[in-house]
Amino acid sequence: MGRTGEDIRKRIARARLERMMVIAVVILVAVVPAIPIWLMYGWIISQSFSGKVILGILPTDLTLDNWRFLWSPIKMGEKEYPNIWPITINTLALALTVSGLVVFVSSLSGYALSRMEFKGRTALMQFIIALHAFPSVILLIALFVILNKLGLYGKGFVTLVGIALIKAGLEIPMATWIIKGFFDNIPWDLEWAALVDGASRWKVWRTVILPLVLPGIAAVSIFSFLSGWSEFLLVFTYVAQEEYYTLPVMIYYMIGEFIHIDWGMLAALGLFYAIPTLIFFSVSQKVLLRIYVGGVKG
Amino acid sequence: MAKKIRRWILPLLFLTPLFIMIGLAWVSPLALTVYLGFTDLSIRNFLAFIQDFFTDKVSLTLDNFRRIFTAEDPNIPLTLKVTVLYVVSVLAINAFYALVLSLAIAFFVRNEVLSMILRITWLLPRITPGIIYALMWIWFIDPRNGLLNDMLRLMGVPEDLLPDSWLLRTPYSQLLMIMINGYVGASFGMIVYTAAIKSIPTDLINASYVDGANEFQAARRVIIPLLKWPMLFVTAWQTLSLLSSYEYILMVWGAGSGQGYGIARSAGVMVWSLYSYSKAFAEYLYGYASALSLILVIIGIVLIVLYFKIFGFRRMMEPSKVEV
The pTM is what? Predict the structure, then answer.
């Protein structure tokens, strides 16, 4: 009897030791390396509302002065930066155009790939996946030449439209694939029933199918909106005039100017720009995650 | 006959917008990259080329590739070295560190709330817009205002090992490059792995407990073997995107130094793709830059074909699927 009691005690001790080791691993691997992430977010939030931060992230001297770019122009010596609102509108316009184009094109082609039989269907799907895996940034130089050739370079707002076209084109393979997945999940019978009742294919698409794939369309539009909203390289490379910058490009140049001088404004500006992304993400986390698993570049 | 035509007219109608967009954004730039790589296009003859594609001011040449492969361009060896260092180390973080991280978050941590907090934390680098992520790093590494040096001091790293500038001192700058991209890559790996771990039937894990395994053994003998495909997928996918990703390097070194991304060369973080970018948009040598890109394009195509062979069509799209 005593022997087994001791045995059990020994086993409990061992189990406890193992649990401790597990906890140690968790702390070492998942918690300690996460500290920089927490510090960075802590800093950007508290810095944006305070005149001075101590110990890196503790706010003192609360102020809204860092947010002054919302109501007055930003100046650096003689140079005056463009007002934030037109720049925000540029960013919004770019994101909305990308999102609209992507949704329109990918819902049509996603339906065709999911529902129609035609020659070369498998080959087309393979091609789309290959494009999806292919890193598009390599094409930046050739796209620059094409933009020039089409007369879309250096034309202010028209350049932004060209960028929206390109960005949408780059996003479309993935979006098509996602929407196709949503179409695949709709049972054929529903469509058959409507077709048998004498509805045309177009009518079926509009009245029966579309409502059922709306979640997919919502996901794709949010996703492409966000990727248009955070697009940096295309605008940075192709837009020459300041008034047609988007927010990330303006922030890039302002970091270069205001670093060490006005961390507060940079933090506020950054937060202002990141808020839509964070809100969208927290609202639609689940669907977006599924898409992210499908693979996003980078 | 009419029926036959209708059979392919309808798909064509639905697919035309797709073809136009893919033609504009993928096919034509791909073809153009191949062509430009064999030309001497630069700022000198650019305008003539834009006006007339077949102008005789642009000539076909193999010079670009000769300069690359014989390292006549003195920057090539270092660029190659930095690229290999970058891809291999970030890949290691993405595939292996992310695996341990996911095991910790999705398997070792039993508290749902804690697991959730950790998961969201590790997602943040990926969902934060790139320039904001860059801004936060620029602050974090700043020796005067940032906390990285303080944090390292607290962990007992001796003072003379801490650099006065993380951006400009090698090898600190290279370490920084790996960390910045590593956090983003770890996010990606974590998303794929945690989804896969969650989909493993708990019976399997419980069975191993009954057989007397502890948590480490269950992780090593049951879970990790089941994650073979997701691991291969993450490695494959990330190899491809790392070869061409330079956005964070451009943003952090370009904005953080206040002097543009040209600083990346002396900081030892000029990767191949950024080098190609700088040749095109800082030195206006479009032909040479395209040749540099073309090498990446070819590597990319070879890898994709290889991946199709290894994974097959299905697995390529369902990386988190676990086959028990």
Answer: 0.89
